[in-house]
Structure formats: structure tokens, C-alpha cells
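Sample entry was shown:

___
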Amino acid sequence: MYQEERMMMILRHLKKHHRISVQEICEMFRVSRDTARRDLVKLSEQNAIIRTRGGAILPVLEKEVDSYKKRVGQKSEAKAKIGRLAAANIHPRDHILMDTSTTVQYAAQALEAQNVVVVTNSIDIADILSGKEGVKLHVLGGVFDPHSRYIHGAATIRHLQEFRVNKCLMGGGGITKDGIFVKDEEEGQVVKQMIACSEQVIVLADHTKFGKRFFYQVCRLEDIDLLVTDRLPDHWKECLEKANVEWSVAEG
């Protein structure tokens, strides 16, 4: 079993039982204590767990996010403005990855560039782009999550590894000075691979996402190239400048 698969199962165990010991990991996966500790170290580096004496627990985080359909309607005016501005950064012959963010969905709706290639794991974004003649669409395979309406899993990540694109449009459940966070490990693993496949990472986020930390960290602030938002909260200009991140604010 690969380390990523063990880590996913460790997180599932933690969601159900709230804590896990090194000994339990050894027994669950028939691995050495050193291997179990390495798994916990990696999860801790991703801010997915808090290590304890002899094991780990889950961190205190934001509440579970709403369903995808409910989130589409939240802050819809701000998301539409952000989406239009992000879509203006897409040009003919671009190759793009789009994650499952509801704000990225608005960018898909506003997309006007011709002769672009889009790869996505979002059912709703795929539906929107299927009606645009200037878009060549690739839909990733894997396991479908009906609550969040996205495709994920090991097959999705393997499929993603075949692509190299020049732009990735992604959202995020929360943004802190440490980076971008999403609600669960399944979504986060896919977004991480999207980032690894992309030359430029563009994050779309309304002002309510700043200062929130969710379950799984997908990247550091320094890994972002451009942040598109509707309003930049106080002190964030300094944070972005320090991380060498450009930003655009959607007006009107």
C-alpha cells in the first residue's frame, strides 16, 4: 500500500474516532513504527493532524462547508465579479485546469476565449463548458461525490499526472498566511496534483475566505501566482507582497 493511501485511511479513522495511536497504525497496515511515524509527520506537515504523544488527533477547524448547490448561491454577486475577472486572464490556446470551486464555476460561465483546452473534475463546470464551442473539454475519471459534485480518488490523481497545463484556476475553503485550505483530504489531494501540473496557479476567493482554516492544506501562500478577489482585507497586501503573490480586485 502506498503512503498516500495509508494517509487517506488514517484521516478517515480520525474523522470517525477522533484520535489514533502509532500502535493502531502499525496494526491496521502491518507496518513498522518508523513507517507509522513518517505517515504522521507528513500529515502534520500538511496541517491535517496534530501530533500527540504516541499518536495524533484532528485539529480544531471551521465547521463543515455547505453542499455545492447551496454554496453556488452564496455571495453570488461577488463570485460572478471574480469569475468574470478571472476569465479575462484566459487567452486563446491556453490549457487550463479548473477545480470544483463554485467561484471557478462562475469563471467557466464567463469564459469567452476560443481554442482553449480545459481539464476539470467538476460535473457542473463540465456541463457549462460542454455548451461552449471554443472549448475542448477533458473530464477526469474517478469516484463521484454527490454532496460536493466532484470526482476524486486515486484514479483521478493518476489521470491528472498525464496533463501539463499553463494555468490552474482553483478556489479554497479558507486562506491564511500559511496557505490555502479545503474541507477534506479527498478534495485536497486532487487540488494538490492540479497545482503540480500547472505553470501558473490562480486562486479565486471572495473576502469571506480570508482568515479561515479548514481540514486540509493544499499549498503554501508562496505557491500561488495570482489571487483574484472582490475585496482585499486589511493587512493582506503585506502578506501577499511578502509571499510574492500578485492580486487583482474585481470592481463593479
User: Anything to note?
Assistant: The two ends are 51 Å apart (CA to CA). Residues 3-17 form the longest helix (15 residues). Residues 3-58 form a domain with the Arc Repressor Mutant, subunit A fold (CATH 1.10.10.10). The chain has two domains: 3-58, 68-249.
